[in-house]
Amino acid sequence: MSQASNPDVIVIGGGPAGSTVSTLIAQKGYKVRLFEREHFPRFHIGESLIPETYWVLERLGMLEKLKKSHFVHKHSVQFVNSAGKTSAPFYFWDNKPHECSQTWQVVRSEFDLMMLNNAREHGVDAQEGVRVREVLFDEDKKAVGVKIQLEDGTLEEVRASVVIDASGQSNLLANKLNLRTWDPVLNKGAIWTYWKGAFRDEGRNAGATMVLQTGDKKGWFWYIPLHDDRMSVGVVGPFDYLFKGRESHEKTYQDEVEACPGVKERLANATRDTGYFATKDYSYRCTQAAGNGWVLVGDAFGFLDPLYSSGVLLALKSGQLAADAVVEGLEKGDVSEAQLGKWGPDFNKGVDRMRRLVCEYYEGFSFGQFIKTYPHLRNTMTDLLIGDLFTERVDEVWAPMESLYPDNKIPPAPWDTPVVMDVAHKANELVLPEGYKP
């Protein structure tokens, strides 16, 4: 290839993390080439945006596009316990009276395409249908480019000062460098489908995300209203419980709906609109956010259980932080691990806060009981739910939370706690209904 085609930065993957990091770098005048192996639109789960995505979307120039979209407006989140008791809504505006407190329930095939096209509008050379076969390293173990395969089978090498892996759960670099650590606690799966005519609340609650605990407390349902009268409804539970020894995804889903009165009631007059989707969501994180000449962002760096809809936020936030570190490094002529990964420790602390809230829920934490006992912490708890994770201020909730522990209970083990586990079967896997197209 000619030297003219070699960019400053290569981004692998065109999802929210890849489109974010590439856009922000291109905004600073650097040449960015992005390679996406699929053709958009393509299906992806993770439909509910939480308010803290606002600040990254603002930098990307995406806000006006979203305001003009048909996506459902989201103002709150609500929890229903195993007995069917519904919590008071956590209204984002009441906690933070700012435009950021209204967010969206998106269809990811549409949202992700909007994000990728936005990257193109900012000068990113984004190519679809191009598979990155490997990241190239020099003799000093610095990433210097990639080998790509075009749709006609042609192989090419592209060089760059920085390679950013936003390949999602393909984990291209993490697999090559053996960086992934499986979470010792979170080992879940999900089965879901889409409905028309399902019950919707009115007013401020019309676009709310609902989290409904299953009757046996082994898992929970998400209930997310989308546009075109569609409702995304899925059950999440321990992997072995949902997928081992069960007849089929359809039968498992139907059994779980029957056992969850809150969901059954809301779907009483609804008609199923698609087949059944399933995913095995093993939470993990990588031991490094960057190395010499390379960076990991989004799910290529880590995946966290979707309980609080944090996936897109973590993709956007990691993309933003990485972009700022890359731009600074290019300006200084420093693309070392220390420079490119300087954002990693603080980002990890933020993910740890959301992870702890996830683990506590699975271990019996009750939002209603907590707010009743510590009403002055309602706003701080809402801060966590909206994704305000990157400040030590919110850590004031943990000691009161522990005060409600039953005897002999201890806080959840950290994500990097060494444990003996069988990882041979571990892979995050998405199963689509036969013939489904977004």
Q: What do you see in this structure?
A:
The strands form 4 sheets. Strands 4, 5, 12, 13, 14, 15, 16, 17, 20 and 21 form a 10-stranded mixed beta sheet that branches. By secondary structure, this protein is an alpha+beta fold. The chain is globular and about 60 Å long. It is built from 15 helices and 21 strands.
Short overview:
This protein has 438 residues and is of the alpha+beta class.
Q: Main sheet?
A: 10 strands, mixed
* Overall 3D shape: globular
Calculate the terminal CA-CA distance, rounded to whole Å: 35 Å
Mean pLDDT: 93
Q: How would you classify the quaternary structure?
A: single chain
Evaluate the radius of gyration. Answer: 22 Å
Relative strand content: 15-25%
Helix content: 25-40%
Number of helices: 15
How many β strands by DSSP?
A: 21
Structural class: alpha+beta
